[in-house]
Amino acid sequence: MNIKLILSILSTLLASSIIFLPKSAILGTKLVLANRAVAQKSANILSQNAQGENQGNFQPRDRKEDEKYKGRMIGAGSFQAGGCPSIDPPPLTAFVTGDGTTSYRVTTAEQAPTLWFYSPYSKQSVSNLSAEFKLMDNREGRDLWTKEFVLEEKGIFPIQIPQEKLQQFDNNYYWRFKIICKQTQQQVYVNGYIKRVMSPRSAELIDDMEPEDKTILYAQNGLWLEFLTTYINEICPEDAEKAKDQIKLEFNSKFIGLGKYSGNYVNNIIKYCNPNSMN
């Protein structure tokens, strides 16, 4: 149905307090209005970037509050001589919000969000390593999920938290990913906090949005995990260059702070999500 006609009908029926539009038409109208709002926010961001007011598109919801929940986005600890060998930089890294060394709490609207990491270790280079991810309820101090991993290849990898683990809205959950040298039990780890919030749109509306519109929505609502995951899983396979440029811009921004090794990180991301573009 023509959108202008729908809006005209809506206006007429609202005036008479009678509405008999089919559900599909109402959903279509909501989607158009939602996308228009996202497009306007996108234009505002581009204007800010042109004036040097903002680096990247992502903006945290409450940076000062997030900074109260600190961890490590760059691997802490080391493997000493006699244990597992040292590896050239960049080190173990969590792609979360922070200042380049310290991680700050991230917010998500997903029931099963994905965190992204870079590991310099592989099964081929270091055979006696083990890796573990742990999720805890920060309020109650209890373990919610623990999973062991085998680091098959050097590069980036995702860890998706299972459904129903982040049950409480506005609760802070603690996570930690560590790599252990089995020979000496020495560890290298990254850690931080994650908070679940209400989604800015219904799942139905978000599913119908274009990937780039989703990233604008996520960026403006402080949803970093969804923002990065959309670029890696949806935009990169179709347009690796666009994903590469935008992710690098975000990594260099003041809200992420991973500029030192951003070129290396981004190349590994593209290798993961669009390997054919690396040829």
Summarize the structure in words.
By secondary structure, the chain is of the alpha+beta class. It has two domains: 3-58 and 198-278, no CATH class; 63-195, Immunoglobulin-like, CATH 2.60.40. It contains eight helices and ten strands. Helix 6 runs antiparallel to helix 7 and helix 7 (240-251) packs antiparallel against helix 8. The longest helix is centred in the first third of the chain and has 28 residues, at 23-50. The chain is globular and about 55 Å long. The model is unreliable at 12-54 (pLDDT under 50).
The end-to-end span amounts to: 45 Å
List the domain count as a whole number.
2
The biggest beta sheet, please?
7 strands, mixed
Specify the overall morphology: globular
Number of helices: 8
- Determine Rg (CA atoms, Å): 21 Å
Write a concise keyword list for the protein shown above.
globular; 8 helices; 3-stranded antiparallel β-sheet; 279 residues; alpha+beta
Topology diagram in text:
Layout: H1 3-16, H2 23-50, H3 63-66, E1 70-76, E2 93-94, E3 102-104, E4 106-108, E5 114-119, E6 129-137, E7 142-149, E8 155-160, E9 172-181, E10 187-196, H4 203-207, H5 211-220, H6 224-235, H7 240-251, H8 262-273
Parallel strand pairs: 4-10
Antiparallel strand pairs: 1-3, 1-10, 2-5, 5-8, 6-7, 6-9, 9-10
Helix pairs in contact: 2-5, 5-6, 6-7, 7-8
